[in-house]
Structures are given as structure tokens and as C-alpha cells.
Automatic annotation (TrEMBL):
It comes from Nocardioides humi. It comes from the Bacteria. Its EC number is 2.3.1.61. The lineage of its organism: Bacteria, Bacillati, Actinomycetota, Actinomycetes, Propionibacteriales. The keyword Nucleotide-binding does not apply. Pfam families: E1_dh, Transket_pyr, Transketolase_C. Residues 347-521 form the Transketolase-like pyrimidine-binding domain. Keywords: Oxidoreductase, Thiamine pyrophosphate, Tricarboxylic acid cycle. This is dihydrolipoyllysine-residue succinyltransferase. SUPFAM superfamilies: Thiamin diphosphate-binding fold (THDP-binding), TK C-terminal domain-like. It is an enzyme of class 2 (transferase). It catalyses: N(6)-[(R)-lipoyl]-L-lysyl-[protein] + 2-oxoglutarate + H(+) = N(6)-[(R)-S(8)-succinyldihydrolipoyl]-L-lysyl-[protein] + CO2. SMART domains: Transket_pyr (SM00861). Its cofactor is thiamine diphosphate.
Length: 669
């Protein structure tokens, strides 16, 4: 442990870069003073959280970093991003919501980012940046490029699950990560004095990290300490935890009435203002008062010029609303499955998944696979067995920490890797939904297109084995409802192989949902170069009387029903969606126009599922084609039951599909 610096400010040794550190702190202070005024006057509309009084922490920390090192920030992130080199004009324009803002007005104060400068984002979710920084550090570890990641967070974040999961992963993997806690005496409205001070050091020790406490109001103390700490982390000694003791001079947010604050505490900390302490260092180094005043005037002029330029910037064009939601989909030509003597041997779904992972690990060194038990254990279903030995360090076991798994995938993807992260059961995505919904899916949009997140998330689902309500859910509709995510659900081995390869190639996040009851099902073989485009449905069988649109296991069940109903004189066209986000509306509506009747079959519960969306689109865009009501074949709107007798009643399959087809065919137009 490093004790809090006790030296009087005027006896700390002068640094050659002291004048630059002082200027950078002034720039942050004046930026935030102007931001406060613009918020008061209604020019800035969104939430604004200021870091006045904390400027020494980011400036001193960044002084110890290389330009290509990575930081993650917080909702109180102006100081961090400006210290890392963010342009003043772009930062102001972003807060003003202008097209010329750092992120084209898509991020605002809480989400400002510039990955090109190593700024992986301020973050509106407390603690969420920790696992993302761990992911950036993972990329550095795998590449061996000597980079370090720093995650800034407040003392309140140390209570969040994301903090603890990110710290667990960092400790287990020995990541080059500095976890920097700005203990500014308040967690929103709650004073730090209500917590046990020794907890910070204890937490660091429990994760195998070195612990360091520094005077967060003295930029020289911070810079000196962080140079030593960062050097140790960069040399491979594992992650470090730094507590920078500082003070939040303003409220939790602008407009905070501050009724919870002790005036004596405020006055005591005001005497240790970080800019005043820096100026004491300058005076000790021979600077005169008029020299310091000249710097104030110079920075003020710089800030005002940035304000003027930012205010002159245009607002985003209303027609640009849909820009930056996701990257442009890759153009993929589906390779037809070979037939006849050229056809490879049939293969199992599970082996197709493993083959796709092996192919991409061999092809691209930026691909790695991580998740619970995917390494030594080879996945709970054995899908990855042996890959850890084939690709040392690139098929990695993680702690049981789903938030850290997805967050690390996000950070590694932002750093240029192509991670394939496994969540053992789709139900467990609820544990890490923030990293999926608020981070992976939205980062490209919030950064105005400055970042891509080429992240693949593999998971599986399926009822029928009495796994109960927490291991059987079909949650594809919830995922498809999140802008920025792509969701695929293959039903055959060839599609499992081709869609997984396409997902890994995509520059936007893709969730691949496999069906565990299909793992040992066989299907036609395929060549190693086989790919399937995301967002393209497959017509499994041509028909003329009714269209059945289905997904995953239900596509196979629908195909079996279609073959049986031939004997009854019913011609069924079966469309396997394969992708539920995006849906191939051209194929779906085209089939409806041909048959004039539509049945939608999915394993998920009825209400608010993808079947409801398909029915709504059919009534809207396909209304004049419909000769009968759209019918849905779905599970009842209850959790999946455990008792086999109840589960048999709950799970839908061929019987229910056949009944729906007969019913719609019997409808009189």
C-alpha cells in the first residue's frame, strides 16, 4: 500500500511538466464553469455532472499514460476526456447537441467518447466502465503490445456488480489494468463517511491487486504516484487499485440543492483546491503572480474561442436520425450446399458450431473465445472441447461473472479484437443486460459512428428437458427490441456454421442463439468456406396454400408438418427466418403474397413475441394479400414449468402447427 501523500504542497519536488499540468487543469475547470452557465441558461439540455475540484486526478493520471493507452470514464467524465486530449470545441459542441460535436450530438455529456484517442467512453451507468476497461486490457494482454487501460470510477461504483465482476476478471487474468477510484467524499447524495474507509484497501487485496492511496487534490502527487503504478502494471505485475482522495466541489448534478452537505467540510476542502495547490508548486518553482495570471487569461481565451466555434455549429439534420445505429452489413453470398457425389458427410449441429469456431480462430488472430467453462471444461455441452489446447490463451475460462464476460467482450472489440463470448444459458443474459443493451448495442450510436463493436455472443435455449423457468426461456424478442443488436437463431448444422462465421465477421454485435435440443441433430454437410448472410431467411419448402414462418427448432417442426399435410392436399410453404433481427421482410411478405395465408411459429411465449411483430407487419404491409387471420403458434404466457406433465402441455410443436395450418386453410376468405 502507498499511504496518502502527507507532504506540504510546497516541499514536493517540481516537475518539468508542471506548467502543462496546471494549464490542463485550468482548461478543465474553465470548460466546466462555462458548461454550468450554459446549463443554467438552457443552452445545454441534458444532464450535466461536473468534476470541479477533482481536476488533479485525471490530469495527473493521464500524465503517466501513453497516447495509445485506454481510459474508461463515468457520467462525471469531462475532466478525464479533456485530460486525454479531447478537443475543446468538439466537446462543447457535443454538449450543445450539435452535428460538429465529438460524437455528432449522439452522446452528450454522459456518453462522450473518442476511441481514436483511447477514450472508450464516459458512461451513464455507474460502474459499467470497469469491465469494458478490463476488455481493453485483455486485448493488450493477448497482443502483448504493452498498453495499459485505466478505469476511472467514483467511490459509489465500488458497490456495483460491474465493479466486482470486472475486478474479479482483472485479478484472475492478471490484466494490465489500473482501477482508479476517485473518492470525492460523496456517492450521489450519500457521504463517504458512512462507509468504512478500510474497505477500499480490503477490496483491492481480495482481488489480488496492489493498493495505493494518493492525495487526489495535488497533481504532482498524483502524477508521481501514477508513473510508478502504471510502470508496474505495464511491466506485467498485474492490476492495481488506486484510491485518489479528492472532493466534489459541486452537486451530484447541476441543479442539486446540496442540502445534505456540511458547510465546514466544504470550507476545509476549499482550502485545498487542486488548482491553488498547483499554483503553490509553480510559485515555489519561481513563477510570479502575473505569470500565473497570464496563463489564466490564455486558457480563458482558448475556452471562449471553443465556445464561439461550437455555438456556430449546425444541429444534426433530422434525416440523419437512423445514422450510426449499426455498421453497414457485410455483403455475403450464401454458398449453396453441395449435393450428389460432391456432398460432404452429414454433420451434427454441435460439431458445426465447433468447426466454425476452429475455422475463425485459425483464420484470424484477433478472434478469441471466452466464457464460463469453455476452456478446460470444453463448454457444458462439450462444444469447445479441445480448442483451448489448440489455441493456447485464446480460448479462455472466465469467472462466473456474466457482466464481466460481456463487458470484456465490448472493451476488447472496441480495441480491435473479434471476441466470441459465451453465456451458458440465454436466461443468464438478464444478469448482464446492461453491458449488452446499454453498452454493446448503443456505443456505435452514442459515439456518432466513431467505434465499432465486432462482438459475437453465443448462447443457447430450449425447453423440453424439465430445466425449469430459469433455464428454458426464449428471449429473442427482448433482444430483437434493442436497436443496434443483431440476433440469429440457426435451425440446421449448415446454418449454425455459416451464421456463426458471419457473426464473427460483422463489425456490430451479434447474438447467436443455438437450440440445445438440436445440438445432436444431423443435417447436410458443407464446405469450410460456407457462410450464411445475416438477415436473410430461407425457404425450406415451396408451397401455395399457406405460409408458415418459423425459427430455430420450430422451423424443423414446421417442415415435418408440411411434409405430412401433403396427404391432406394442403401445400405449405415453410420460411425459416434464421435471423430475427433484422427480419427478412422481403421473403416473408413475398411468401404471404403468394399463399395469402400466414402462420407464425416460435417457441417463445405468445404475448409481445416476434410473432406479434410479424403479424402486425403482415396486416400493415401485406393486408391486401391476406385471405385469413394471421395465426400464431407459441408457448402459453407463463414461465416454463418444471413438472414434465406441465412442460409437455407448455412446449409447442408439430401438433399445434398442424392445427393452426388446418384452421387457416379452412377459413373462408
Amino acid at each position: 500500500m502507498t499511504d496518502l501523500q502527507q507532504h506540504p504542497s510546497d516541499v514536493l519536488p517540481a516537475r518539468a511538466d508542471l506548467a502543462d499540468l496546471h494549464r490542463k487543469m485550468l482548461r478543465i475547470r474553465m470548460f466546466e464553469d462555462r458548461a454550468a452557465t450554459f446549463y443554467r441558461d438552457g443552452v445545454i439540455r441534458g444532464f450535466v455532472h461536473l468534476s470541479v475540484g477533482q481536476e488533479a486526478v485525471p490530469v495527473g493520471t493521464v500524465a503517466a499514460l501513453r497516447p495509445d493507452d485506454v481510459i474508461t470514464s463515468t457520467h462525471r467524465g469531462h475532466g478525464h476526456v479533456l485530460a486525454k486530449g479531447l478537443d475543446l470545441t468538439g466537446a462543447f459542441a457535443e454538449l450543445f447537441g450539435r452535428e460538429t460535436g465529438t460524437n455528432h450530438g449522439r452522446g452528450g455529456s454522459m456518453h462522450i467518447a473518442d476511441p481514436g484517442l483511447g477514450i472508450f467512453g464516459a458512461n451513464g451507468i455507474v460502474g459499467a466502465g470497469v469491465p469494458i476497461a478490463a476488455g481493453a486490457a485483455t486485448a493488450a494482454l493477448l497482443r502483448g503490445d504493452g498498453k495499459v487501460a485505466v478505469s476511472f470510477f467514483g467511490d459509489g461504483a465500488t458497490s456495483t456488480g460491474a465493479f466486482h465482476e470486472g475486478a474479479t476478471l482483472a485479478g484472475d487474468w492478471g490484466l494490465p489494468l489500473v482501477m482508479l477510484c476517485e473518492n470525492n467524499q460523496f456517492s450521489e447524495f450519500t457521504g463517504t463517511h458512512m462507509k468504512r474507509p478500510e474497505l477500499m484497501e480490503a477490496r483491492a487485496g481480495s482481488y489480488g491487486m496492489s493498493f495505493h492511496r494518493v492525495d487526489g487534490n495535488d497533481v504532482v502527487a498524483v502524477a508521481d504516484a501514477l508513473e510508478r503504478i502504471v510502470a508496474d502494471v505495464r511491466s506485467g505485475r498485474g492490476p492495481a487499485f488506486v484510491e485518489a482522495v479528492t472532493f466534489r466541489a459541486r452537486g451530484h448534478y447541476e441543479g442539486d440543492q446540496l442540502k445534505y452537505r456540511d458547510p465546514d467540510l466544504v470550507a476545509a476542502w476549499a482550502e485545498r483546491d487542486p488548482i491553488q495547490i498547483a499554483e503553490q508548486h509553480l510559485a515555489a518553482a519561481g513563477w510570479r503572480a502575473d505569470d500565473i495570471a497570464a496563463v489564466h487569461a490564455s486558457v480563458a481565451a482558448e475556452v471562449e474561442a471553443a465556445v464561439e466555434a461550437a455555438l456556430a455549429g449546425p444541429e444534426p439534420d433530422r434525416g440523419s436520425l437512423f445514422e450510426y445505429v449499426r455498421t453497414t452489413p457485410r455483403t455475403v453470398a450464401e454458398t449453396p450446399l453441395p449435393t450428389g457425389p460432391e456432398a460432404p458427410e452429414p454433420t451434427r449441429y454441435s460439431r458445426a458450431v465447433k468447426a466454425a469456431l476452429r475455422y475463425e480462430l485459425e483464420r484470424d488472430p484477433s478472434v478469441f473465445v471466452a466464457g464460463i467453462d469453455v476452456g478446460e471444461g470444453g463448454n457444458v455441452f462439450g462444444l469447445t472441447r479441445g480448442l483451448a489446447a489448440e489455441f493456447p490463451g485464446r480460448v479462455r475460462d472466465t469467472p462466473i461473472a456474466e457482466t464481466a464476460i460481456i463487458g470484456a467482450g465490448v472493451g476488447a472489440a472496441m480495441a480491435g479484437m473479434r471476441p466470441v463470448m459465451e453465456i451458458m444459458y440465454a436466461d443468464f443474459l438478464g444478469v448482464c443486460l446492461d453491458q449488452l443493451m446499454n453498452q454493446a448495442a448503443k456505443l456505435r450510436y452514442m459515439t456518432g459512428g466513431k467505434v465499432s463493436v465486432p462482438l459475437t455472443i453465443r448462447t443457447q435455449f430450449g425447453a423440453g428437458r424439465s430445466s425449469g423457468a430459469q433455464h428454458s426461456q426464449s428471449i429473442e424478442a427482448m433482444l430483437a427490441h434493442i436497436p443496434g443488436l443483431q440476433v440469429v437463431m440457426p435451425s440446421t448444422p449448415a446454418d449454425a456454421y455459416g451464421l456463426l462465421r458471419s457473426a464473427i465477421h460483422e463489425d456490430s454485435p451479434v447474438v447467436v442463439i443455438e437450440h440445445r435440443l438440436l445440438y445432436e441433430k444431423s443435417g447436410p454437410g458443407f464446405h469450410p468456406d460456407h457462410v450464411v448472410p445475416i438477415g436473410k431467411a430461407a425457404v425450406l419448402r415451396e408451397g401455395t396454400d399457406v405460409t408458415v414462418v418459423a425459427v430455430s427448432r420450430m422451423a424443423r417442426e414446421s417442415l415435418a408438418v408440411a411434409e405430412e399435410l401433403v396427404a391432406e392436399g394442403i401445400s405449405v410453404e415453410v420460411v425459416d427466418l434464421r435471423s430475427v433481427a433484422p427480419i427478412d421482410w422481403e421473403t416473408v411478405l413475398g411468401s404471404l403474397a403468394k399463399t395469402n395465408r400466414l402462420v407464425v411459429a416460435h417457441e417463445a411465449v405468445s404475448d409481445f413475441g416476434i410473432g406479434a411483430e410479424i403479424a402486425a407487419r403482415a396486416v400493415d404491409e401485406g393486408f391486401w394479400s391476406l385471405d385469413a387471420p394471421v395465426l400464431r403458434v407459441t408457448a402459453p404466457f407463463t414461465p416454463a414449468p418444471y413438472a414434465p406433465a406441465l412442460e409437455r402441455e407448455w412446449v409447442v410443436g408439430q401438433r399445434q402447427i398442424a392445427e393452426a395450418v388446418r384452421r387457416t386453410v379452412d377459413s373462408v376468405p
